[in-house]
Amino acid sequence: MILTGMILDVETTGLSPIQDEMIEIGFLLFRYDTDTDVFLETLEEHSYLREPLSLSARKNYEFAFRIHSIPFEDVKGRSFDDTKVTSAIQRADFIIAHNASFDRSFTAKMYPELHSKKWYCSARNIPWKKYGYQSAKLISLLHSHKLAAVQTHRALDDVKQLHLLLKSSNYEGKSYLQVALTEPASAPKAKSIKCSLSGVKQKRADGTSPQTYLPHITPNETLLLKKEEQTDRFHVYTTDRNYLGFIGAAQSKKLTGYLKESFQLTAKVIEKLVNEKGEHGCRVEIMIEKQAKKKEPLFNH
């Protein structure tokens, strides 16, 4: 079978996908014959820089610079080519990275379609100790295989070095990629987004207000979602179709990305809120599940 693989690596401002951001992404697409264990050709390779936007990520930049040595001036005003990155992801049959859980936690946040891909980890899906290597660190393995003496910690450089390592063979004559692919793929995990509803104090055109219905909701109550096509905003209703409010723009954008990848969205109440003025609100949780039977589990009026 001929598969298209993607080797991927990122450089970030730190270790937390919540507080930190990617500043560089590098990837290589290649074709591989699983029957003959032969790397056929490299299809494309790219790297992109981007400026971190959040305050927490920008604060961490000086610390991260000690590792990746990418001056802030190099990333200032830059952004990833989302069209090319997304196109490459769509072409890939699987993703492989060294310490894949780290790369996945950052990249899938920006590109939700990665949740539906098969992921393999070249650090964990290959039994390096069985083969006599005490460390699974990339630079150590590269050095042991006489493939490289230094690691630049630049995304595309790391990708190319990992490509060389995966093409190398174990004592049985199997490529390390073949070994990695015979291990179970990292299955996409169920995801969820938690947020407070917006617009809970606004009256609708028909004169109704969420304040009429919010006092009567209960924790874990199932809710309905409706996507407004003009704005991609998600509106939230009770199962009796009473309007409760809407989900903010940033979270709605993420949910739209999941819908495009045929994920199923379901929502529920997780907490009732009331402020000092007696105004009601609520926090909701939207569950994101793979292989939806319907692309948009929403309702129509």
TrEMBL record:
Top-level lineage group: Bacteria
Protein name as catalogued: Exonuclease domain-containing protein
Coiled-coil segments on the chain, per record: none
GO-annotated biological processes: DNA replication proofreading
InterPro entries for the chain: Ribonucl_H, RNaseH-like_sf, RNaseH_sf
GO function term, MF aspect, one: 3'-5' exonuclease activity
GO cellular component annotations of the record: cytosol
Domain Exonuclease stretches: 4-175
